[in-house]
Amino acid sequence: MIGWEAFLTLRLLEEGEGTLEEPAAEALAAYIDRMDAGALLEAMRRISARLKFLTGSVETEVFTAEPERIVVTKDLRILLPERYDMEIRMRPLVKTVFLLFLKHPEGIRFRELRHYREEMLRLYGKISRRGDRAAIEHSIDLLLDPDDNSIHEKVSVLSKTLFRYFEKPKAGFYVIGGHAGDPKRIPLDRYYVEWK
């Protein structure tokens, strides 16, 4: 909870009757230091909107989101180390698509996915832990079929999943995207990815 001194000073500022005094500034800074990333981003959005309103500015937001590191374990779990190793949970085929694109920062055109069939079979086999090789191959072949919508469905489900774990500006680093005809890719700088 924000300290009463900081709150009172902010109210005075809002009413145009004062300046931000040192004790209130320190209390506000201490409060901000205790905020988690999501709350801080939301506060920054609100401050940015207020500044735009007061100045009549139409410039872009005054903050930039920075991606979080992800760790991919040997058993292909996806962890967020900055969140006490919280696991990003996905359906096996969705995770297979995500990991394939994560391994290929240059991007992949959907129509060229067939060239990655063996890699996808290895990933999916390890993730799904299904013993039925024929069922694994059938699921991957549906993803590779240009007449089937499976790859688009998996990318859509992946986006929805990622938006449950990351705020809007940050989620954009992790989703698969790209212009029509161009390779689809995950824009995340691979500096933020650790493969165990």
Task: Give a brief outline of the structure.
The chain has 196 residues and is α+β, with helices and mostly antiparallel strands. It has 2 domains: 4-55; 70-195, Arc Repressor Mutant, subunit A, CATH 1.10.10. It is built from 8 helices and 4 strands; from the N terminus they run αααβββαααααβ.
Describe this structure in words.
This protein has 196 residues and is α+β, with helices and mostly antiparallel strands. The protein folds into two domains: 4-55; 70-195, Arc Repressor Mutant, subunit A. It contains eight helices and four strands; from the N terminus they run H-H-H-E-E-E-H-H-H-H-H-E. The chain has helices at 4-14, 22-34, 37-55, 92-103, 117-128, 133-144, 150-165, 168-171; strands at 70-72, 78-80, 86-88, 193-195. It has a four-stranded mixed beta sheet with strand order 3-2-1-4, with helices on one face. A hairpin with a 5-residue loop joins strand 1 (70-72) and strand 2 (78-80). Helix 4 packs across helix 7 (150-165) and helix 5 crosses helix 6 (133-144). It is elongated. It starts with a helix and ends with a strand. The model has no long low-confidence stretch (mean pLDDT 83).
